[in-house]
């Protein structure tokens, strides 16, 4: 172990810093054009309707003290859905725990929308994420409240739809890391591995028109072994009539090519449409080949559909062939479009009896990147859909097949792009708890990993979980996160806890998660403080030679390693360099990176390594250990990477 490198990895607060403003190429375009048309894509690709309106754009905002109602608000403009702390919001103001952030805008409804109300349709207002505590008002009346900064919520606002403009207001409070609420990497005193706290609306705001009885949520469970899919519809009451049509995406794309329409921007560009190409008919199209699906509807559960696919239509999903089936469901008078994939994620023994992560029942090496999902101009909000694509495609070009979404929940469009581009996702739950005891949860495990492995996490105070209310709230949010993301094909693994941050009862939590979702493995305690639960023995190793420590009951993964730092002048938030080993140039960084993979990582596949996650995809503030700079303008790797074989047994041992 290199003590000097370990000491340099100590995370320190740097509240005196003024971060250098950095715009991504997409954020620069937003700033240059002064556009209000941001994030106009349909936010929910697996449950899409045609009758909707996006409310992102310029809103009014003001900030007032919580305990002083006499303060007159000074209203200014903010660009939603960017948090006020971000560059792209146009505000750049940190909300404090003792302040309220208010939003306001007026909504005028068209004649067609007023007609929708007259014929019995309902207007559902959606907030995809507001950090942390939100209260929503229509014409001064509270219509919904929500606590938790990472999950969506909605309200029926039909009663407020009229010829007069609706006054929509949102009141936000964000206690950030001064309480036990989930917050991930956010902190009011940023520095090192913790980043600028953000607040308020940070994902899309929109509304849609639905029938009185409509599909609120779908739970899609594929079963590759039986060539079937179960779709459970959640609605205010049971449907009298349900039909489902499934499309062959390959046939649809072939038809497009035959008609020489592959470049049509409105119809065939899956970068901008809300669902896979097969589910979006184009004007005048001649054929879409339909799969002869056998659909069974349970009489005892009429909202439960069992779809059996014919043998000749079976196309398993993999990162190399990310096949998605598109479908349309008509439930009474409601119509929605979506997609699913046939795949399975398991942990099974290979031919030598070593437990491995398996994709579709075959050993598959997970070559992953840690993905924090932070942006220099939008913080946790990407500047646009194309920015999502850039990150995912960069990871694929670099030879990676997995992204570990690190203690953050992204907008559903990010997962959609992982689904269609072929990127496996390890999904972290968002960490919470009171202030972390860093010497215990980070520095001691780094120096004495064996002690950490034998430390029990029921000592709640040591793990910043003394507050029972906080533990109960975290468990509920964990279950809600699984409900929210359950149907995403690319999500392969749930990760409840990372490095002891707010960890508690991890072995029990692993069983709870597995009971909630038996279709995916669980990495119950990524890093250290292993409680012998879940499906993986999961370690972090930044300062020692990489090695495998086999476990008879679980697959072995190195869920974080690397963290090599390379500061690129003019593309960092601060001049200070934070990282675990430092390299002066991109060339030196590239050489060291290749050596790490070729000499240390790849040979471990033969010895039982099932997956590994390099830290990280992009720089974040003073962390400069990304493959690309924080502003996404400079890619540091200047040559192609060695690609891990999906089959561990096919890799030649090159240990030096």
Question: Keywords, please?
Answer:
656 residues, alpha/beta, six-stranded antiparallel β-sheet, seven-stranded parallel β-sheet, disordered C terminus, 35 strands, globular
Fold and architecture overview:
By secondary structure, this protein is α/β, with parallel strands linked by helices. The strands form 10 sheets. Strands 28-27-26-25-35-32-31 form a 7-stranded parallel sheet, covered by helices on one side. A 6-stranded antiparallel sheet has the order 3-2-4-10-7-8, with no helix packed on it. The chain has a 4-stranded antiparallel sheet with strand order 1-14-5-9. Strand 23 (355-359) and strand 24 (362-363) form a beta hairpin. Helix 5 runs parallel beside helix 6. The two termini are 18 Å apart. Mean pLDDT is 89; it is low at 251-288 and 649-656.
Molecular shape: globular
Radius of gyration: 25 Å
Measured distance between first and last alpha carbons: 18 Å
Classification by helices and strands: alpha/beta
Largest sheet, if any?
7 strands, parallel
What is the spatial order of strands in the main beta sheet?
A: 28-27-26-25-35-32-31
Number of strands: 35
- Uncertain runs are 251-288, 649-656
Strand fraction:
25-35%
Task: List the topology elements.
Layout: H1 3-8, H2 25-33, E1 52-54, E2 57-65, E3 76-80, E4 99-107, H3 111-118, E5 122-127, E6 130-131, E7 133-138, E8 141-147, E9 153-156, E10 166-173, E11 186-187, E12 195-196, E13 200-201, E14 205-210, E15 217-223, E16 228-234, E17 242-247, H4 249-258, E18 294-297, E19 304-308, E20 325-331, E21 334-340, E22 345-349, E23 355-359, E24 362-363, E25 366-371, H5 385-397, E26 402-405, H6 412-421, E27 424-428, H7 438-447, H8 449-453, H9 468-485, E28 491-495, E29 497-498, H10 506-516, E30 525-526, E31 536-541, E32 555-562, E33 564-566, E34 581-583, H11 586-601, E35 609-615
């Amino acid at each position: 172990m290199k003590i000097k490198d370990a000491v340099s990895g100590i995370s320190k607060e740097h509240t005196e810093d003024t971060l250098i403003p950095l715009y991504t190429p997409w954020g620069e375009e937003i700033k240059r054009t002064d556009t209000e048309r941001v994030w106009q894509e349909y936010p929910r690709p697996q449950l899409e309707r045609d009758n909707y309106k996006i409310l992102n754009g310029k809103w009014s905002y003001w900030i007032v003290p919580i305990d002083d109602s006499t303060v007159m608000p000074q209203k200014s403009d903010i660009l939603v859905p960017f948090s006020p702390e971000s560059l792209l919001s146009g505000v750049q103001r940190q909300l404090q725990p003792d302040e309220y952030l208010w939003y306001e805008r007026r909504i005028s409804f068209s004649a067609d929308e007023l007609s929708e109300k007259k014929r019995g349709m309902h207007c559902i207002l959606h907030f995809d994420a507001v950090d942390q505590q939100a209260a929503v008002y229509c014409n001064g009346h509270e219509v919904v409240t929500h606590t938790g900064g990472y999950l969506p919520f909605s309200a029926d606002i039909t009663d407020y739809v009229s010829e007069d403009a609706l006054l929509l207001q949102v009141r936000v409070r964000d206690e950030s890391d001064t309480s036990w609420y989930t917050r991930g990497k956010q902190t009011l005193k940023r520095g090192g591995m913790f980043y600028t706290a953000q607040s308020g609306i940070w994902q899309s705001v929109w509304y849609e028109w639905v029938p009185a009885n409509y599909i609120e949520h779908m739970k899609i469970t594929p079963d590759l072994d039986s060539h079937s899919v179960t779709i459970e519809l959640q609605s205010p009451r049971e449907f009298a009539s349900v039909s489902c049509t499934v499309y062959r995406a390959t046939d649809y794309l072939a038809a497009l090519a035959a008609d020489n329409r592959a470049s049509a921007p409105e119809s065939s560009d899956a970068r901008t449409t809300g669902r896979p190409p097969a589910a979006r008919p184009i004007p005048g199209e001649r054929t879409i080949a339909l799969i002869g699906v056998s659909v069974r509807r349970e009489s005892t559960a009429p909202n439960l559909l069992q779809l059996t696919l014919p043998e000749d239509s079976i196309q398993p999903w993999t990162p190399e062939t990310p096949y998605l089936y598109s479908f349309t469901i008509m439930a009474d008078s409601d119509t929605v479009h979506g997609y699913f994939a046939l795949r399975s994620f398991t942990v099974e023994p290979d031919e030598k009896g070593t437990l491995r992560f398996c994709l579709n029942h075959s050993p598959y090496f997970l070559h992953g990147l840690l993905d924090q999902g932070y942006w220099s101009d939008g913080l946790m909000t990407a500047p646009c859909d194309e920015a999502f694509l850039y990150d995912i495609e960069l990871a694929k070009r670099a030879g990676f097949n997995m992204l570990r979404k690190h203690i953050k929940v992204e907008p559903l469009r990010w997962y959609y792009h992982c689904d269609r581009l072929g990127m496996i996702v390890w999904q972290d739950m968002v960490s919470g708890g009171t202030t972390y005891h860093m010497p215990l949860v980070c520095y001691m495990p780094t120096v004495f990993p064996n002690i950490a492995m034998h430390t029990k996490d029921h000592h709640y105070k040591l793990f910043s979980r003394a507050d029972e209310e906080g533990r109960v709230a975290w468990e509920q949010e964990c279950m809600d996160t699984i409900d929210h993301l359950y149907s995403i094909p690319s999500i392969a693994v749930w990760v409840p806890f990372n490095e002891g941050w707010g960890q508690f009862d991890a072995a029990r939590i692993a069983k709870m998660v597995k009971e909630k979702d038996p279709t995916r493995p669980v990495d119950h305690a990524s890093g250290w403080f292993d409680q012998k639960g879940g499906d993986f023995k999961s370690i972090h190793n930044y300062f020692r030679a990489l090695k495998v420590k086999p476990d008879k009951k679980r697959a072995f993964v190195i869920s974080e390693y690397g963290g090599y730092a390379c500061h690129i002048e003019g593309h960092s938030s601060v001049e200070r360099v934070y990282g675990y080993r430092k390299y002066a140039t991109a060339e030196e960084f590239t050489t060291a990176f290749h050596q790490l993979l070729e000499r240390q990582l790849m040979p471990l596949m033969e010895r039982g390594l099932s997956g590994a996650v390099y830290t990280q995809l992009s720089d974040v503030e003073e962390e400069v250990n990304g493959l690309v700079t924080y502003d996404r303008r400079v890619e540091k790797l200047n040559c192609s990477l060695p690609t891990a074989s999906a089959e561990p047994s096919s890799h030649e041992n090159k240990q030096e």
